[in-house]
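Continuing the series of single-chain predictions for the mutant panel. This is the parent chain; the variants come on the following pages.
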Amino acid sequence: MSNHFTGLSLGPPLGDQRLDLCDLYAFQSPTDDSRTVLILNANPTADALHPGAVYRLAIDTDGDLLNDIAFSFVYSEPRDGRQTVDVYLARGTQSREPEPAGERLFSAVEVSFGATSTIVRAGDITFAAGARSDAFFFDFDGIKALFDTSGTRNFTAPHLSELGGTSPWTGQDSNLTANVCSMALELPTSMFAAQGPIRIWGRCSVRENGELQHVDRAGHPSVSSFFNTDDTKLEYNASEPVHDWDRWLDQFVHLLGHTGGYTRDEAVAAIEAEGTLPDMLTFDPALPAQYPNGRTFTDDVIDYRLAFLTKNECPPSGLAPHTDTLSEFPYLGPPHP
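Parent structure:
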């Protein structure tokens, strides 16, 4: 879930789970700290991905909030329970084009839907795609108890006082046996040619009437879920990070005023300190990965986000990370039956 839902309405883009970007991870390879792992997860049903869509991992390497490197993933029409994917690598201005561009790194890679993942390599780049166990952990019933006692579909003030000082948490991980469709890359960190942090974001676009429409995006975990509204999610998902500060700052500040009693100055300072806007995952490979520097499978991003929203008033959920992740590529465990 970190982006498995928008507000409490649980609506995937265009009503199609295949277009739903779930989580984005970035961390140093545990087997070689000179390499970086990037993982983009989609489709919480872990079925075949949309053959008319372009899924993208984009990286800003110089701090101007524009793509400098982009990996695009294009899936075939599924047939008889099988699907393949082509992977493109674009650099510079080509990486900002909506269509897949640049070099085709991999052609017709088999998408895995069973326990064994198909791992392929092109030079120093390793890739795999397919159904994997979802590493994201959260207590959805607890979130509903915290925010939804009034029946609203969008997040407003948490109902901590209405809970009478008791914890909203159930202690149950809603995602313990969940699967996702994962796109995993491992590459030399030197490929970024960056002198400091890089910024990473995911995008999903689907072809309608011959043109690609941008229908989902992923950056910071749970930012789109909590800060978006039903009225703005289509515009937000179609927007570009370079415009985030000007377009979305006031909406983010408004929400923080409700959820944490932030003044405007406090909210702006908190957003600046975290780098919440632009909605891109920041990762400095020279420092250990731990959100908000990249993101690992053990980062409790929901507790982090709720502390951020409530100015540290929300108690932690007490959930533990999943134990079925791997220490080697593709890092996410086999899918649950």
